[in-house]
């Protein structure tokens, strides 16, 4: 791990990175993006920085085209052309304006199937046609842009789902939409506009003509897709529809094409959810991880505000959804922050009885993301500062700690929110294991999807009862499997067929009908390893 010291407007920031990426890519994952308009190939000459200290290597041919000998002598370089080999100090000379959208450095499982295999119709006359895969999550919206001719990944963006203004969880948003047609229309408009903003950010920053986009594929949980299309969202508030397919496929998307500025002949495919609250994001994740093709029995958990769970027994595929709330994504947590630069993602005990915190990007801590919250609670359990019931020792109502120079506070309410989210997932795991006749100890594979899982410490998650107590090598942290699977389905007719097969094979378990729900939920509230029922 190397350190990038950054001078931005007189303030000094420290960013940790793994050598191998360009300065531009390193900065793209932070709030300090350098201006650019050419997808980082050195064509625009905008991403200027001054290397104050460190080995930047020899100037490239593109740098000689854009920078005079005098500028090069002063240490001025193009960020996209410099790949730091170790620690480096720089000054950004051409800072990009603030954006709601961030680039991802985690490509996860996506983009592995190669070029489109002819399964999708492409408009004639479009050179280098592109496709966009969208994961419409409850808290975040993520998208990937790919070249459909070569299958090459071109760009990726993620940002806040603006529907959060109507509620952090799906039920609150559904209720708001059912009570007010104006609110329903606004939530649909906000989601459509957010996709357009992300595409515009890609177009201006990467220098990509949006008219090349001829396909948009969207996955998400059922509630998000229904609110996106503005169809049948009210059905999800009625229990009799929780085990039935919900039609939430948009009828007319011509207005979306115009708003996004993409090719007017482009096709928009909203991949239908399975049923109830089990969406197409789960199906896409199962495609991306080759879930039913590997060892069984296997467990898949896509952690999120609406956590979706699958269990493959080797013969049957059982699926369910649990309303865990937004704690895994740190929404609603007093000291919470999404998994972005400035978020505490790892917490370990120190010799003095306190904690040591690692921060994404290595910069000043601004809050704690989901994985850091799991670590912190595990540390407090080990030190005796927190009981298995979630109460602080000695009658305390909060735990104050330092993350570098930043003072943060974990409250009892924060612990309660994580306990409830954990308990909801625990009930789902127990219910699926019961239907499949599988014991936790028999599981041979556990796949963890979602942004939450990217930084998760498996041992900490097992300690508090979030994951089954299995050998660490059994657990796979797979990243955003929903987006990865959406890319696969967009590129490959074979992947689309696999998704259709999973849809036919899946057996839905409605936790509202689980007879031991209350007892199982109470047992899983305890901060302790998962137990066999």
Features:
533 residues, six-stranded mixed sheet, 4 domains, alpha/beta, single chain, Nucleotidyltransferase, domain 5, Ubiquitin-like (UB roll), five-stranded mixed sheet
Short description:
This protein folds into 4 domains: 2-92, Beta-grasp domain (Ubiquitin-like (UB roll)); 130-280, Domain of unknown function (DUF4445) (Nucleotidyltransferase, domain 5, 2-Layer Sandwich); 296-325 and 417-487 and 506-525, Nucleotidyltransferase, domain 5; 327-412, no CATH class. It is 29% helix and 22% strand.
How are the SSEs placed, and which strands pair?
Elements: E1 2-8, E2 11-17, H1 23-28, E3 48-53, H2 61-66, H3 69-73, E4 76-78, E5 88-92, E6 130-136, E7 140-147, E8 153-160, H4 170-179, H5 181-206, E9 213-220, H6 222-229, H7 254-260, E10 267-270, H8 280-288, E11 298-302, E12 307-312, E13 317-322, E14 343-349, E15 355-359, E16 367-368, H9 370-383, E17 398-403, E18 406-411, H10 412-436, E19 445-449, H11 458-463, E20 475-479, H12 481-491, H13 493-505, E21 506-508, H14 517-525
Parallel strand pairs: 1-5, 6-9, 9-10, 11-19, 13-21, 14-16, 19-20
Antiparallel strand pairs: 1-2, 3-4, 3-5, 6-7, 7-8, 11-12, 12-13, 14-15, 17-18
Helix pairs in contact: 4-5, 8-12, 8-13, 10-14, 12-13
So how many helices? 14
CATH architecture of the largest domain, please?
A: 2-Layer Sandwich
The tally of strands reads 21
Q: Domains counted in the coordinates: how many?
A: 4
Give the % helix: 25-40%
Oligomeric state, counting identical vs distinct chains = single chain
Terminal residue distance: 43 Å
Radius of gyration: 23 Å
**Overall outline:** globular
What name does CATH use for the topology of the largest domain? Nucleotidyltransferase, domain 5
What is the CATH superfamily classification of the largest domain? Domain of unknown function (DUF4445)
Unreliable runs: none
Strand content: 15-25%
Kindly name the structural category.
alpha/beta
**Tell me about the biggest sheet?**
6 strands, mixed
What top-tier CATH class of the largest domain fits best? Alpha Beta
Mean pLDDT over the full residue set = 92
What spatial order of strands do you see in the largest sheet? 20-19-11-12-13-21
